Fold these 3 entries.
Entry 1:
Amino acid sequence: MSHAPSSPRRRLAAAAVLVVTALGLAAVAHAQQNRGAQQIKYRQAVYTVLGTQFGIMGAMAQGRAPWDAKAFATAADRAAFISTVAPDTFPPGSEAGAPTEAKPEIWKNQDEFGRMMRDLQDKTRALAAAAKGGDQNATKAALGAAGQTCKACHDKYKAD
Ligand code: HEC
């Protein structure tokens, strides 16, 4: 037999496989980190859109901007829509890879986190309905209720 298990050529081949595997693993780790970074950026962009709509509505509710029922209803619709996207932005693997304020407990308490997301969706949908209804006081109350869902989750799951 020319190729005994410990022949130099065999060992060289095994070493080459190890090097290639190590390079492959490093590439995978790098790709995962890039993917985490992308997912975090996407998540923060989604929340930026949500926060911007609340900024628009909050300014009107607090009298810092003139009440504009149509603009308020548009912001409420957008908030309700983007709230349906928010739960998709916490996939496993998006805990790290870029600076993030998402606490690791999110991925340990998926049931409670999911409930808080549904509460956000319910309250922003109710807000959009109230805004269409045209009653300013009811709309302000619905804005307050929706705002509570932000605070509840941030208090527990967002680092500040
Ligand atoms: C179920 C949990 C949850 C709810 C509900 C929630 N947030 Fe957040 N929010 C987070 C987490 C977690 C982060 C941190 C994301 C990160 O840094 O990766 C965040 C980040 C943000 C940011 C910062 C985005 C950035 O650029 O870093 C804004 C603005 C924001 N949220 C607004 C809101 C508003 C407004 C509401 C309610 C209408 C809301 N959030 C509801 C969990 C939530």
Note: The radius of gyration is 25 Å.
Entry 2:
Amino acid sequence: MKRFIRSAVPATFLFCLLASVLVGSAGAELTDVEELGKLLFFDTNLSTPPGQSCAACHGPETAFAGPDSEINAHGAVYPGAVHVRFGNRKPPTAAYASFSPDFHYDEDEGLYVGGSFWDGRALNVVEQAKGPFLNRVEQNNPNMKVVINKIKHSDYAMLFQDIYGYGIFMDIEQAYQYMAEAIGAYEASEEVNPFSSKYDAYLAGETDLTEQEMRGLNLFEGQAMCSACHPSQPAEDGTPPLFTDFTYDNLGVPKNPENPWYDMPPAFNPDREDWIDLGLGGFLDDPAEYGKMKVPTLRNVGARPYEGFVQAFTHNGFFKSLRDVVDFYNTRDVADWPPPEYPENVNDEELGDLGLSDQDVDDIVAFLFTLTDGWSEDGYFAQPVVPGSAGEIRLDLGAVYPNPFRTTAQIEIRLQRPSRVEVAVHDLNGRLVRRLTGDRSLGAGLHRLVWDGTDDAGRNVPAGVYFTRIASGAEHEVQRVHLVR
Ligand code: HEC
Ligand code: HEC
């Protein structure tokens, strides 16, 4: 399994981090608690065995959704820290998830609203963050004490104590609670929820949508009825649209036959291939709610780190492209789709036979691509074409810190063996912006490179999203980096 992000934090970064705690540096992108949450989120040591961080399944290069094209292309369920163990659902994005209200029953609407996970079983993202570390099919730590001990011996133990008090590690339960709160704070930060899509710029009157995107928006809010569940207009209090009303529905999505959960031993999955995901109803033990899944945000549904990257959509990753998803809404009841995973309670009011033309479907997809963060006048993130052919990857392009960055970004690369490599920065259109190494030999181990936001001619490049790319022969790996000015 390749990993883009590791926990190794450059000493200089940590120094700045601690310095900013002490002096309260005004330029800091994240508050201290958010920064701590970020370190926890990306710490690959917080699993048993070590190696898996939250980012393994919520990668920043895919806007905190599933970052592995190969996995998305098939079962769409990610292996745990113990690599033969799988859960049963596709990771939703962890971005914008913090906006979900606490799980509750809305008496007026007669509906369940909010919560975290596809089935709402966690009250909110703070409660959610307590789960993966102890989940046997995820980070697999035996108990809270093991997690807290790892944090106690981490590079950021000081920061944790600075914020929550010395001696905090003695109170395991309280420390675990604070850990979850810090992760929740990072997930609620501007870095994770930048509201920087083209559509946001359009709502702010800073840019126009193309004719096609505009047609897509009109269909989204009109004939296709998407905005009935994925609201596209700002809330009354001014919150930009989150593209989910945080309610639950059974769309009749078919089973994903490649879901690895079906092959898990009976100790984990007694039902084997007959297992049915009951969603909200399974959590509530209420047949009236069986098969219902939380409406996901549509922000960043188009975010891909490179062309050809396969995404997976809906709770089980049955769909592999946005076009497939919209086709399903359009033709579920009139074309030849496999039967629903759970046939009762299927919504037959707002979807199934929308009467959209092929052109309409394309237009809606074009609109969905305007919801990708990191947009700027200079580039449209939807088609980040990065040259080179994907192959067996043995290179590891590690963390880029800080990200987003203002002056310099540190790029870490780890090589399993001495290799000839080329590291470069590309823009959204795949154009080479800056060669960082030329084509040269580097030894095995960890290397750090710095990009100062200039191009090969030494000129400052405009703010926006760029890609750092490391290539060796036919292998390459790419990571997204956001420059702000
Ligand atoms: C092995 C893969 C994996 C790891 C590791 C993992 N997650 Fe998840 N995450 C998932 C899956 C799968 C779901 C959906 C599970 C469900 O609905 O039952 C999920 C759901 C979530 C959600 C809910 C989003 C929403 O809109 O409901 C958040 C937030 C989240 N994860 C954050 C985290 C954090 C924080 C960590 C680290 C402590 C983490 N995840 C570790 C796979 C993973
Ligand atoms: C009745 C409410 C409802 C309507 C109307 C609706 N959706 Fe959804 N949407 C959902 C739910 C619920 C899911 C998750 C279903 C599941 O996982 O089984 C979903 C999932 C999605 C996903 C997958 C996102 C992801 O992260 O996996 C996309 C994309 C999407 N919808 C787009 C649309 C578009 C485009 C339209 C209009 C053509 C639309 N939706 C109309 C409720 C709705």
Note: The radius of gyration is 22 Å.
Entry 3:
Amino acid sequence: MDERANVAPPLPSIARLASISLYLALLAAWVATAGSLYMSEVLGWIPCLWCWYQRVAMYPLAVVLAAGLIARDRNTPRYALVLAVPGILASTYHILLQKVPALAQFESCRVGVPCSVDYLNWLGFITVPMLAWVAFAIVIAGSVFALRANRVVAEDYLREGPVFGFSPAFSVVMTVAAVVALFVLGGVMTSQRAAAAQSRATLPTPAASLAASASRDEALHIYNQSCIGCHGPANASMIWVRPEFLRSRSDLELLAFMRAGRAANAPDNFSGQAMPANGGRVDLTDAQLLALIQLLREVKQ
Ligand code: HEC
């Protein structure tokens, strides 16, 4: 009998490409998940409502694609599309909210952080939902390509051949390592934030605070990055900041308030909404907070 009859013919190149396309989709989902966690957990940016809808679609993709690739499940691209198509629709709507002023009035997220303001504005137009849109687009393109390839490739290859490129053992090890790394990273980030918050809470040193003073321009820049989302523009129309609250307190008392924030259920809360510690920005120094306080005093007499 001919030896070669038992040897499978070489895998069609489309199958190899299909495997790469799903790995690219997985990479896009992982980068987007890690980036989104970095923005909220390290930079302290508070996600808005539509940011959450996109997270709901993106985070499971990071796991579903990996699990599907390990199991060599032919339906992996289908599972991915079920998540990525609503995801890209949410990103599209969110981008429109930010870029089309007329749409901002239909904003469905009036409570908390407004969706029409973005923390990030690279090159003057690239915002967070645009990055999410690109990640969803890569997942969709990769999945559609893999689906088409599945149709072309014979059943034999899918059952026998290494259609998805790497060996299952390697994929399992890599995925477990990545998930463990994400958890360790998350733990380190959280403990760093807690340590930073604590050192700020236990070190009310006015001399050190004032040693390096921040300018009004810097304060305005920080305000427009981090406070404007909840408080509105830095002028007399600013909401949730009472002039009498500012007047009746010293700079250091206001600094202490800024460090601590105010829980939604605190006895002195008047809006029913929380003011996050440091306005949600653990990285702000005392000098920057004091400059912000001067700015508030100036515009909100
Ligand atoms: C997630 C939304 C949010 C962000 C971001 C935020 N704040 Fe607030 N802030 C609030 C809310 C809500 C209140 C009102 C709390 C209450 O009802 O007692 C408040 C209250 C305050 C007050 C006290 C006002 C008063 O009359 O008691 C100051 C001062 C203040 N914020 C400054 C800032 C600064 C400066 C920043 C940016 C570094 C910032 N906030 C970021 C939501 C926010």
Note: Residues 235 and 297 are 10 Å apart (CA to CA).
